[in-house]
Amino acid sequence: MSADQLPEHPDFLWRNPEPKASYDAVIVGGGGHGLATAYFLAKNHGMTNIAVLEKGWLAGGNMARNTTIIRSNYLWDESAAIYEHALKLWEILPEELEYDFLFSQRGVMNLAHTLGDVRESVRRVGANKLNGVDAEWLDPQQVKELCPILNISDNIRYPVMGATYQPRAGIAKHDHVAWAFARKCDELGVDIIQNCEVTGFLKDGNRVVGVKTNQGTIHTEKVGLAAAGHSSVLAEMAGFRLPIQSHPLQALVSELHEPVHPTVVMSNHVHVYVSQAHKGELVMGAGVDSYNGYGQRGSFHVIEHQMAAAVELFPIFARAHVLRTWGGIVDTTMDASPIVGLSPVENMFVNCGWGTGGFKGTPAAGLTFAHTIATGTPHELNKPFSLERFETGALIDEHGAAAVAH
Amino acid sequence: MLLISCPNCGPRDETEFHYGGQAHVAYPENPDALTDRQWAEYLFYRDNTKGAFAERWVHSTGCRQWFNMLRDTVSYDIQAIYRMGEPRPDLERPVVNNPAATTPEGATK
């Protein structure tokens, strides 16, 4: 695939309206999740007198900074259900949104490097199959056949002992996804308001009745927070806490190369994930920086570590150059699962805690969050992902299950 | 990469340290008396401050001692380093305002 297969850069896909004095609902955060939520509010629930407020430019936060991996091979039933629903939506959205955002189902491989990895992986393949998620266990030879540039020899520190493989998984072009949602939102009458930073909330008792912004006060009946790494800051303005820690997560791209990498390879153990974007860049990421941070940048040793892992697994990359590195701020929870549901403030709803893997969840986050906002009760799919689970103990512990590396 | 001044060993690269999250979170005095809500607060809720944040670090590959740090979570500037058991310093101005305390983005030592 080459650059000339990309759609032409669009003109204007949405209006840039002034905020109205009041809306039926306001979504805070104009990234993928906020836009998808607005889209499903308008499409599924007929709520078109709504606004999406974005403090910067549209989809310029984590939506612009992720490595675009889409998969649903999570261990636990609750996660498999919501991520698989997301994947099914990814499969129909290009047609529904009438926008080819280059969703490429090239498969995702999760490598196993230790006996523990192998056992966890085989277990996860079984769990996935029981949940209707496509999954296979590959031996090293099959890994090599699918991805010939992978080094499967046993003379490296952590040899490849096999991999799980989800054929329907893949990547999409993230900015086009945002534009696709934004255009449809706009057509349906949603106001997308950029450079509009929320500075506080208006409350009547414990009920939210408005949003204070740098573009004036906006009255509204309902507020949905979809601000990823800045969710805690907004929650504090509204008077409650979230069990979230914000961390920098870095990623990088190489210069453009001929197509060499046919799939997506993730390794939790040596910790890197790599794909090749449509234009030809090698796209890589790994784990978060350990410290809390809002700075949209991290420490260099984290990049160094993931490059070492990448070069060991893909010796062919040794002479590639890093073109660009960047960081985004991810909202991590203790159980590595998102929080989508009600908040302690009446008529205020939270969609956060997607941590390092929110991109893949975009359509399901939008669908379930819209349902939650419109009806005041969670959708079947996001019911388990409530804030209350941290009190009841019904955690969805994807740490060490499938969410170590996204 | 952060350059962290260990109170025992002096300035060392961030890679010698491990992070311990929010400082000054005491174990509950009467854990059995807590409600589920209070227990959740202790287990899962931590401050997620944008700005000056008191946090713990341990010098894993040096003296292996824990200490506290006051660090800006936006600029990543280290504003104070103090020993375990000491209260969070009330800073008008940073105590450690050494330009070498943090290196520019992407720099290595």
TrEMBL record, chain A:
GO terms for cellular component: cytoplasm. Its EC number is 1.5.3.24. InterPro entries: FAD-dep_OxRdtase, FAD/NAD-bd_sf, Rhodanese-like_dom, SoxB. One of its GO terms (molecular function) is nucleotide binding. Keywords: Cytoplasm, FAD, Flavoprotein, FMN, Nucleotide-binding, Oxidoreductase. It catalyses: sarcosine + O2 + H2O = formaldehyde + glycine + H2O2; sarcosine + (6S)-5,6,7,8-tetrahydrofolate + O2 = (6R)-5,10-methylene-5,6,7,8-tetrahydrofolate + glycine + H2O2. Its cofactor is FAD; FMN. It holds the Pfam family DAO. It is an enzyme of class 1 (oxidoreductase). Belongs to the SoxB family. This is Sarcosine oxidase subunit beta. It comes from Arthrobacter bambusae.
